Amino acid sequence: SASDLGGSARIPSHYTGVSGISVTPRRLSAKGIVSSIPNLVGLKGSVGLIADKPETLASVLKLLLENNRQYNYDPLALPIPWNSHLFESSTSLRIGY
User: Fold this and answer.
1) Which among 20, 75, 86, 90 would be 20 to 30 A from 54, CA to CA?
2) pLDDT higher than threshold 60 for residue 75
3) Transmembrane residues, as ranges (predicted)?
4) Rg for the chain (alpha carbons), in Å?
5) Is 86 exposed, middle or buried (0-12, 13-18, 19+ CB in 10 A)?
């Protein structure tokens, strides 16, 4: 994992042929992560994940988000559960940069 404010997870992933995603700020807990830019006002970084392929990212996110694990660990994390319907649907999933 990496912190991602300006593409710290996504850009290296792009150039090295792996997959990376930056989740919505506070979607995953940042508890225990030290900011690389202390006292930065107005910008919130988020947790970025890097994996060998998109399926691995989905599996990791599912494990982290199911059963409100993030919210139970850190009440500042958003209590939004994993939505498996998005991955079971025949409708194409569109992910933007």
Assistant:
1) 75
2) yes
3) none
4) 14
5) exposed
